Amino acid sequence: MIDIRVPCSTSNLGAGFDCIGLAFRRYLSIRYSPDDAPLRVQRTGTLEHLDIPADRDAVVHALRTAWPSARPVTGVIAMHSDIPIGRGLGSSAAATVAGIMLGHLLHTDEVNGEDDVVYEISPLTRMSALAHATDIEGHPDNAAPSLFGGLVAVARDDGGALNAFRLPLSDDIGIVFAAPDTAISTVAARAALPADVPHALASRMLGRTAALVRGLESADPDLLRIGLTDELHVPYRLPLIPGGAAALGAAIDAGAWGATISGSGSGLIAIGPHAKRATIASAMSEALARAGATGVGIEMECDTDGVRARRGIDGGWD
Question: Do β-strands 40-45 and 74-81 pair in parallel, antiparallel, or remain unpaired?
Fold first, then answer.
């Protein structure tokens, strides 16, 4: 019996388009119980109403790409998630990471050891899993924080190889997530983007990315206001989000230093003083409601562990 827990994530964070992500304490948890019958899937939580055959499940797909085809996986994968689906919190990346890590543990035969084991997942294994997840997902900025935890940036060398590294995040920063009751698929959100951008725009965004990184480290309101300003994806995706513009404006009026789209939407992220999180969350939720897009506003807590795995242990995670 193997348990794997993967945190959700927000990506982009304004100017950090496709290269910066942050893990939160909302999780996809899976438990694999082997037997001799064909692989089955059980879903609870936000996954409960998904009507997807096991062969098309994102966890199973990732597992099978990480598991030798000559040794088919049998048994049950029980999944529970409190990550909203299609709201820009990396639910797909979390599923992909869970499947890859399960495949890694099965492939290396680590599961044949003693029970009551919490696995130490090495940085090298996490990097290998990131490359695998990026091949599946098409972008690394959600899988990276789900694997490593915390605030993570991803850069490529001139050969295209990935390098993921943690960035400092100030404890004085408060983060709020809000979303309407409308999901947006990543495919639709990607399709809304232009194929090319002007050189001058790309140059502006480089400066804003620098401001974002320094602002997240220092909780500098002016730098975060600049760094959370985006022209690469937000102008094209915001019209797809019911009440989105109103909620972003409400966050600023309530004291947020900046606000933007979470990932590809429909969720939204606001950053401001830690003490104002509740006020900002209420303001965003109320703005969505006034726009006819009933939704939620949630105070978020950062996850610093990333993916975790264990064998033969009942009860909650420490």
Answer: parallel
